[in-house]
Design goal:
This protein is an all-beta fold. The chain folds into two domains: about 10-15 and about 255-359, Immunoglobulin-like, CATH 2.60.40.3880; about 25-245, YVTN repeat-like/Quinoprotein amine dehydrogenase (Methylamine Dehydrogenase, Chain H). About 0% of the residues lie in helices and about 55% in strands. It has one helix spanning about 245-250, and strands at about 10-20, 40, 50-55, 60-65, 70-75, 80-85, 95-100, 105, 110-115, 125-130, 135-140, 145-155, 160-165, 170-175, 180-185, 190-195, 200-205, 210-215, 220-225, 230-235, 240-245, 255-260, 260-265, 270-280, 285-295, 300-310, 315-325, 335-345, 345-359. The strands form seven sheets. A five-stranded mixed sheet has the order 23-29-28-25-26, with no helix packed on it. It is globular, with a radius of gyration of 19 Å.
Length: about 350
């Protein structure tokens, strides 16, 4: 029998701020590429890959960079100040990803992904990787609903969707321009960094080209999605640029982000999620937001919150703190995907997803 009640939730919707573009620092002039950006930070050395990492609070996230000289640096995402550093997992690293538990380091032409402790750099385990350059983590429901890794390979100019648990490739597609080195996943689409043409391509996960945008400066080496913005890492300018996709390409008037990316509890237990929503436009936006829970391999899909009707002021940032309880029944054990979706129910314009493991 289909289970209709999945979780019980208690929530408080709190408007946090109505601020200027990005983090309030303001719009700055573009670099050699045609792309605009809302904020930038200096990066250490000739950094060639980066990843924004937020654990429980989106606004307090930090930026990780690999300097191409054997070290990983954790930077203040507002100033670029170095907060921590340690040796990388081995050799050169050309891709970083964050899954909520591990900072995943993708070896440069090693075709190995290292799952490491983000604070110490210690390797917890490693597995094969289809691509030898950039890497991105994300939630996506094809060929089945679960978490995936996308890898970029400069040698073949292919993006590969890799099984998160084994590294085996399940799907590949080529980019249009040459010089593929980096990849990011925004919850809906993939963004690839093409260093030789100073272009960032947008593809749907089936490989179809959606659009292209100019990089903020020359030689884009890698990118990442922080939950609301796309980042592009450039070693020639030693800068990481934060880009607003609504400004740049008209995508996602409102974005949604869930944290933490990985959650664990037991049947009869509970867990708490931070939900953040951001209106990227200069006008009031009428939209809906809802939270969907989907059991991996179990066939249960349930809207557990909403849809909630929202009227978001220009630039408004909302934070939603929600506590969920899990029924004390064995059929709720296993992996779940939890999504925040924004749009007109049930069609999402944007979504952000996380993992829940019920023991």
């Amino acid at each position: 029998m289909r289970i209709l009640v999945l979780f019980a939730a208690v929530a408080l919707l709190v408007p946090i701020a109505t601020a200027a573009e990005g983090d309030g620092i303001g719009v700055v002039s573009p670099g050699a590429g045609s792309g605009r950006f809302v904020h930038s930070i200096p990066i250490v050395g000739s950094g060639n890959c980066g990843q924004y990492v937020a654990t429980n609070d989106w606004a307090s996230g930090t930026f990780f960079i690999e300097d191409w000289a054997g070290s990983i640096y954790e930077l203040d995402a507002t100033t670029g100040a170095v907060l921590n550093s340690y040796p990388n997992a081995g050799g050169n690293i050309h891709g970083l990803a964050w899954d909520g538990r591990y900072l995943i380091q993708n070896g440069y032409n090693q075709y190995v992904a290292y799952f490491t402790d983000k604070d110490t750099g210690a390797t917890i385990y490693s597995q094969p990787s289809t691509g030898g350059y950039g890497i991105a983590w994300g939630k996506y429901d094809s060929p089945y609903d679960d978490q995936w890794l996308w890898t970029a390979d400069h040698t073949t100019n292919l993006i590969s969707q890799d099984d998160y648990y084994t590294g085996a490739s399940v799907f590949t597609f080529p980019t249009v321009n040459t010089g593929l080195v980096g990849v990011a996943f925004d919850g809906i689409n993939l963004w690839t960094m093409q260093w030789s043409s100073d272009i960032i391509e947008c593809h749907n996960p089936a490989g179809g080209l959606v659009t292209t945008i100019g990089a903020p400066s020359s030689n884009p080496r890698d990118g990442c999605w922080d939950g609301h913005y796309l980042w592009s890492v450039h070693w020639q300018t030693a800068t990481a640029y934060q880009m607003d996709l609504y400004q740049e390409a008209g995508f996602y008037p409102v974005t949604g982000c869930l944290l933490p990316r990985y959650n664990q509890t037991t049947t009869g237990g509970s867990f708490t999620l931070e939900v953040t929503l951001l209106n990227h436009t200069s006008m009031t936006v009428q939209t809906q937001a809802w939270i969907q829970a989907e059991q991996v391999g179990g066939g249960i899909s349930k809207t557990v919150v909403g849809p909630v009707n929202l009227s978001m002021a220009a630039g408004q940032f909302l934070e939603v703190d929600k506590r969920f309880s899990v029924p004390n029944k064995p059929q709720f054990k296993g992996l779940w995907d939890i999504y925040v979706r924004v749009g007109t129910f049930p069609n999402a314009d944007h979504q952000g997803g996380v993992v829940l493991e019920v023991l």
